[in-house]
Amino acid sequence: MKSNKRKITFMLAICSLLLFLTACGGGGTGDNNSAAPGPTGNADNLSGVVKFAVFSYPVDDGIDPVTGNNVKGMKTMLQPFLDKHPKLTVEYIEVPQDNRKAKFQSLLLSGSVDVLILDSAIDFYNQGFLMPLDDYLKRDNWKNNYFDSLWLDKERFTNATDGKVMAIPGIVNTNTVMYDKQIFDDWGVAPLSDKPTALEILEKASKLTGINPKTGKQTYGMYYDPRSSSHMMLDYFSDGNGVQIGETDWANFGNSKLNFNTPQIKKSLQTLIDMNSSLPPGYEIGRGFENWGKAENNVAICLWCSKTDEILKNKLQDRYVLTKGVRDNNGKTSYGTAQTYTIAKDTKNPEAAWQVLKYITGAEGQKTIYDNYKSLPSWKNADWVDEKDNPYAKQLLAVVADTKNVLFPPIMFSLVRPWMAELISRANHGQKYDLTTEMADIQEKINKWVEEQKIIDASKNKK
């Protein structure tokens, strides 16, 4: 008997030790996001707290400053979901427009957030702050609900390095080419094609600049704001090849091979300068476009348009025509992406965070956002979109469905685009410029930025 008791005691001790070792052995190795929790929770019995960092929507109900309409805040929009899960609480963190990236960084570093609406996911994902969502998408068969083209966006949704999904699409963001049909008719110029080439735009914009033969007033062929969209004009006016600036390593910018100083980019820049005569005075600082959407408009083509509020308010939708964008040599256009919803890797409540994310980016959530803000959905089968609300809706969504997404490294926005806007302004005012010398100088600064990123990468990868 004593012998049997000793054997039982010994076996229990071994079992306890094995259980202890199993519980403690979850360290492992791998990339920054390999330890993210998997989908093991119970979606029907959610409880606890989800902390939601809300950006671009008010948390509480209020008045839309653009339309003047009463709109629901995120609290109200999520309430139908919470009504189904009475044990779950959502705590809202309202993130202001100004300095929002620093706020997101602070929340992620402190582990005090679960769900976030971001401008883009790439930086925070590569730092290991965001959870890959592939397992959840596969489990719930959820990925195919969104426009397929959106998953090609490697800045917001699919990581270029490991191929994993970083975020879920919300409402779409898109810009395309629009034109004023009345001005075309006045000049006797054929309307733009449904997918015009850059050459077609340039030729027709030139013909539409001058004294309107019907009204006797000055008209201009086209408009864009170099301060915010000159980088996309490089892509438009690239002989249909798309802008090529080398290879960006989104995980380690220091490994990037960027080449801005090329004959093709020089040619595109010269085209932007030569376009000056077809654009209204002051366009380089956002002027000359004040009457777009009105009866007294004098600009024929808007190169980077998405807002249709003024057109619809004035009931001029038959006059202002939306195209599907500038066609490249592959028949693709730019630009269409979507709002970025993510989950923090360190979330303490992953299943609940996923269900919150899934609801607000799903059919019910996006319909609620549409009903309040008329924002177009990334949900494929959005039968709630009414052309009475926005006659342009289907065309804008067609742009998103057929888009290519052009990705630019951060140095484009901090250095290159401001220089391009300033260059165009100088040229427009007859001041001297030297593309050869200035492009060489910009390339040197880009090279320096890449070298600086190597130090940052080394520090980051030690963590």
Automatic annotation (TrEMBL):
<dbReference type="InterPro" id="IPR006059">
    <property type="entry name" value="SBP"/>
</dbReference>
<protein>
    <submittedName>
        <fullName>Extracellular solute-binding protein</fullName>
    </submittedName>
</protein>
<dbReference type="Pfam" id="PF01547">
    <property type="entry name" value="SBP_bac_1"/>
</dbReference>
<keyword id="KW-0732">Signal</keyword>
<dbReference type="InterPro" id="IPR050490">
    <property type="entry name" value="Bact_solute-bd_prot1"/>
</dbReference>
<feature type="signal peptide">
    <location>
        <begin position="1"/>
        <end position="25"/>
    </location>
</feature>
